[in-house]
Amino acid sequence: MIPSTIQAVIFDMDGVLIDSEPVWQQAEYEVLRDLGLPLQRKDILETVGLRIDQVVDYWYRRLPWDNYDNGAVAAQIVDRVIAYIKNEGTPMAGVLEALACCKARGLKVGLATSSSWTIIDAVLDKLEIRHCFDAMESAEHLAYGKPHPEVYLNCATKLGVPARLCLAIEDSFNGLIAARAATMHTLAIPPAHERDQPRWVIAHERAETLTELPALLAGD
Question: What's in the keyword line of the UniProt record (predicted)?
Fold first, then answer.
């Protein structure tokens, strides 16, 4: 049950607000395969929730390639994702209703994502939800991205709400670790193919889509 003391809800973005995780995975797979890495699609799941420079660094350490340029590779991936968002991006089920519910209940609303500000802008403009957020934080320029809790802690500070009184909504395990480390109450919405994995037990709450958030906040 979500505590009645919760004062703010902080949303992850990719996979929570917009159905972009499969696009990230496809873009990463294509760009890394073009570099000659012998990856399979399932391998890309190892880095879900990490900041894009961390993703590139992860694979370089595992499978080094010549002429390493983290920024250039990351930019190629980001450009493909932005193009998709602008052309085909759609909100995840229940997003607009969930945001409206938070506002109606007098909760502050935040965004805490590993994605860059260019991605954030593309998503908020495409979904037309920028006005819904009281604070937004990106891990783009932080020393560490998720699973480090800093991006969540920064968002709580900007909202003016103690971290322990925030509900964090995540779809990735790395993001869930970050939110738990920030001492927040957590709601995990795992991808369908991961729902039965026992590791999600560390989330305080679980749901299949954001359509369940209003009832959870109401204590139903």
Answer: Carbohydrate metabolism, Magnesium, Metal-binding
Record the tokens describing residue 127, joined without a space. Answer: 């979904």
- Give the pTM: 0.86
Quickly state the pLDDT bin for 21 (edges 50, 70, 90): confident
Q: How far apart are the first and last CA of the chain?
A: 9
Whole-number Cα distances in Å, 116 to 40, 98, 112, 144: 26, 23, 11, 13
Q: Which residues are catalytic?
A: 12, 14
Long-range (24+ apart) CB contacts under 8 A made by 184-189 are 184/10, 184/152, 184/156, 185/2, 185/3, 185/6, 187/2, 187/213, 187/216, 189/15, 189/16
